[in-house]
Automatic annotation (TrEMBL):
Gene Ontology CC annotations of this record: transcription factor TFIIIC complex
GO molecular function: RNA polymerase III type 1 promoter sequence-specific DNA binding; RNA polymerase III type 2 promoter sequence-specific DNA binding
Pfam family, one: Tau95_N
Regions annotated as coiled coil: none
GO biological process, one term: transcription initiation at RNA polymerase III promoter
The organism's place on the tree of life at top rank: Eukaryota
Protein name: Transcription factor IIIC subunit Tfc1/Sfc1 triple barrel domain-containing protein
Organism of provenance: Dovyalis caffra
Amino acid sequence: MGVIKEGKVSGLIPSNEGFAVHYPGYPSSTSRAIQTLGGTESILKARSSQSNKLELYFRPEDPYSHPVSGELRSCHNMRAFHQMQAFS
């Protein structure tokens, strides 16, 4: 649990794993971004398989659209900072 001391929060972050996808563009919605990546099944499959390739289809409804491939990279030094402001 976090502790608040002198206006600052400190504590341990749980050891759960997470992952992020760096999407190369500005999708119209989150669901559209997931659809162009092949759906949640494809994202989870790419994360858990040995090949670790994720394909992005800019036009998933077009059968002639060729995918752009991405690879999984591990990162062990990610930090998250959160700053809160008090409103009076």
